[in-house]
Amino acid sequence: MLPRSLLRTLLPALGCLAQLSASSPLESVYQSNIRSIRRNDVLEDRNTQLLRLSEDDASNETEGQDASWLHEHSKLERADLDRLLGELGLTYGDARELVKRYAGTDPVCTSAGPSSTAAPTSQPTSTAPVSAGARNMNVVYYAQTPATNQVPLSDICRDPNVDIVILSFITDFYSAGGYPMLNLGPRCWAANSVQQAAGATGLLDCVGDGFANQVAACQQAGKKMMLSVGGAIATNDLPSAQAATTAAQMIWDLFLGGSDARLQPLRPFGPNIKLDGIDIDNEAPAYSTYIPEFVSALRTLYAQDSSKQYFLSAAPQCPRPDQSIPMPQIIPDLDYVFVQFYNNPQCNVNAGTGFLNSLQSWSQDLLAASPGAPRRRRAMVNSGRPPPKVFIGVLAAEGSGHVTPAELMTILNTVKGLNIPNLGGVSYWDGAYQALSGQGGQKSYAEVVRETLA
């Protein structure tokens, strides 16, 4: 596997593939790339396996054809390519093969002009595969498992059975400079020069490596793209109600529909991409006190942008009550609840009646969010929205509570008999493993859910 440090220097230098801005002189790009390469010593030995292409993969194109291909797809002049690849110590054939192998077989921006600076846009061009009221939706978390490197986001979003993708995670509300810490595993680059100048070194540059383009393409395909706050290693401390409100405003301005001019240049996905909502996955009881204020502030901010619908969700563990997410206080503000029916043997999805009883109890909790109202309309009394949908959270990877797609089908057939009125579908940790579950000719988890719960 080619090291990320090399990809971060090679791919951005290849013009269109890295959305090279006309405002960034090639000279500065060259110099920053070469300094980074030398700093990381990724090309210390030109003959190491890092850049050695196997005979099976070696291109039989001539050097001239390779150079023409790179010129066409990078929009760099031949002289610029010569200079760049000379500094990197790459042949035309090596560079072409690396770009094709690690940036996709066909660059998505071949039609862009050499000075194109258009930021990714996320205006949808189609509707979601299923309606928001469906019972067979599929929701996937993405970016934090070993399988992430095997499955690009574009593959996740090409699956017609996937409805919502939750990028993971914001791990700290108040990191360097008072800005959030964004951790998307192997995706996106470290903070860019503008973010660094603002002291926001915990943010990421998701435009430079093209990940923002994939997010935009997902939204254009009708997928809802949310962002999760928390995770197992998060330190999302909210020490006061004011801190919670301030954090919500920052998240709104950096990732959602906010328009604070000061923060627009710092947005990790660029100024034109508005994510579709926030998921609460706090797993530390010590950080739970002011989550209700955070959620309430977000819901208030959502109302400021009438151009699109924003969502709020939570991912509690299956034992009730959840110790890390104060569900009773936030249920009226939620649209979805992705209950983690794994890592807890008493209510894992394969725990038989333990699971079925837990699922029914969670459903009833969500329906009874406003005591005293009619059973199926209680949540609407407080929020004006239907009760949150409950989702069956499963492990797509090995672990406590893991089941195969075939085993999940059997379980879901039993669930159908419970007639749970607010069932929304199934959520997965995580999307990359869910995508890999369909290999070998078998049905994937998402296919099983779509068909079984239809």
UniProtKB/TrEMBL annotation:
Span of the signal peptide: 1-22
InterPro entries in the record: GH, Glyco_hydro18_cat, Glyco_hydro_18_chit_AS, Glycosyl_Hydrlase18_Chitinase
Protein name: chitinase
Broadest EC class assigned to this enzyme: hydrolase
Organism for this UniProt entry: Cyphellophora europaea (strain CBS 101466) (Phialophora europaea)
PANTHER family xref list: ENDOCHITINASE (PTHR45708:SF49)
Catalytic reactions on record: Random endo-hydrolysis of N-acetyl-beta-D-glucosaminide (1->4)-beta-linkages in chitin and chitodextrins
Family: Belongs to the glycosyl hydrolase 18 family.
Record key words, sorted: Carbohydrate metabolism, Chitin degradation, Glycosidase, Hydrolase, Polysaccharide degradation, Signal
Keyword Signal found: yes
A GO term for molecular function: endochitinase activity
Gene Ontology cellular component list: extracellular region
Region (Disordered) location: 109-130
EC number: 3.2.1.14
Pfam families in alphabetical order: Glyco_hydro_18
Segments forming domain GH18: 136-454
UniProt GO BP: chitin catabolic process; polysaccharide catabolic process
Sequence ranges of Low complexity compositional bias: 110-130
